[in-house]
């Protein structure tokens, strides 16, 4: 197939736009926040929060409030209680407590952050003001890769600032490491934390207990002109997961429209996350004219998962192995509100699974920042950075059953619906008896594109590499004294990012004769389970299965299988690389002065962004005439400009009372897997003479290398009042008009005439039309997001000295969205990850070293991204959830023989809230049920 055919198929580069803009970079980059900072409060204003000498929880809240108050832009912040002590178990936990921010749990951990209803695809993450790569499949950062002990504070920018490079539409999360020259002196801090899951280990090779250890050293030398901060961290964190997944809910028959469980697969899962990290910061400021900072971070983690369960087919139409070999729903089943809630199923051929997943990832980041004073009022800032992430997965599936396809014993099940929407599944067969089972393909799943294979297992081995290098320079200065104009800033940033995705997969069949794992060649279809692979049994009692065999998945992989490379077009088409070269410039004016007797601070500016994006990959197709898979190299991309103006204003209406207003145009780049050039091309011989567009001969499915960023026009308004004795109240309104929203299932007609030459002449002569559909993401959507937030941080000492030490931090937000796509404008969708209502409430007490806190966070139902068939992402409605966490601790005070020692006990998910999804807007139709249990932590900290 000719190379030019690919680019002609809507994958070719296109040049858009001609505009240039002055641009620049904040001189505070990597030293402080990249967003503009307001001047200190006026003399008659309330004292700064930092003037109140407190520690622990109150110190964290006050430092966060100070960041929020002093920023012209609208931000939220989390600050460490002390060096190496963020106030929660993880960064994601802390962020999920902020107003308008919530998290979706994965493997029991907070991972997928949504800011103001927009999921991780719409935000960006910075480290000390620098854009970061990720070990994830796309752009969304997995916060587990960053040890929380290394960060002084985390700032969430909810409004864009001209100097904020790579800002997101929903927000920008900036992780900030501590600065050694800002510390009082030498600090040595160590921390050791033990962890226990409330559930006993669910697998014999799982773990219930874990630990976390860290050490930090901070010091200053050479008359306090040179500072160093070094941190080390090690974590071993286990988790348990009782999992249930339903196949769906068809009707009993064409005449009986009662809904019935189509099939289910209960699992028990044990995870172990091991992570090791190191960080170093070198800071040098020999005089007022030069300030240099070097940051280095490295993190390595390995996560291992053991998953054991059984797939039970139930619905006859879905479970058929042959026309006469189907399950049967016995008469007399119980129906409630149009739903089968109790039934007996016969002739069931189940698949027992002993799976093993392992993920290894490395993350490295380095940045060097220099601020040079050219005069008393002018500074040059130069910042260079590089970040690298590499991840490899080993995803192993092992199948066993009573026989190959139609052979072997069948089971009779009794299913009963539970109050939580799951079903108890009580079998007749003993799934813990090895004599009943063997290594086989019980349901005939194996197919290599042309013929059946004995798929007794399957192995996926994807790997990802992400690199980003950036160079930034800016020049800032001040105007002459007097008037509203305070200063100016211009500069430029260049970044180069390349993400490479490589996929390899294999069919696994029992050892023996044959080739290619095909039964026709003599491949063994059923083999006894090796005795050495049996390590015991595990119960699935939470759903009615007394026990199943626990096999060693890696022993099976190394000793019981032949592996055959999977070269189906759908498998080969996944390898790709995406490259983005981005030139960003900005210019802005800084404001600070009196307007009508009120102090006004602000920034007004514009970014100009030129993007050169490209992708290399392949186009693959199956030649039905020869049975061969054809892979053709492909490339494509786009070049375009974006101009993004923004303005931020902070008006001090009264002492310590601010009205902040922001307006901006922002953008965020689409998912990297959507930007890939790859297409899976196919032909349908039965439609060779058709001119009907619904019956095409040619078709293609894949990515779009010319995809443009999402865009948003934003208005944000915030009112904030800060109290003299600490605490604040605030309220915010926001509105976003989204354009160029990506429809992942967009399609368009394309003329495939350039690929006809690659087909045999006999086929070419019969083709009625060369026009066919291409299914690829497109910027065809638009919509709106609007909402409101309210926050109160109130130390009760504001009201009476008798309650000094008590306090509350609470927030509530409401968000509404409406997204429509061009192909179906009358059917709006909601945003993935958006909960209409999000609320957080913390009640705390802290005094004389003692502290206690309880936190409850709630989110209403939302569209959750979960792993679908073949681990592909899919979306389902998740039920509302409320999570209760608590902690209690004591820090020995100065004068005590144990001064510097602190002990803390924490408990997560005390409500034991499971993660539940359902389909068709019907909460009865539960698809996913995942129960993680409670986690308990005991921490000892010592600071010299």
TrEMBL record:
Protein name per its UniProtKB record: TonB-dependent receptor
Top-level taxon of the source organism: Bacteria
Keyword flag Membrane: yes
InterPro entries, per database record: Beta-barrel_TonB_sf, Plug_dom, Plug_dom_sf, TonB_rcpt_bac
Entries under NCBIfam families matching the protein: TonB-Xanth-Caul
Subcellular location: Cell outer membrane
Signal sequence range: 1-30
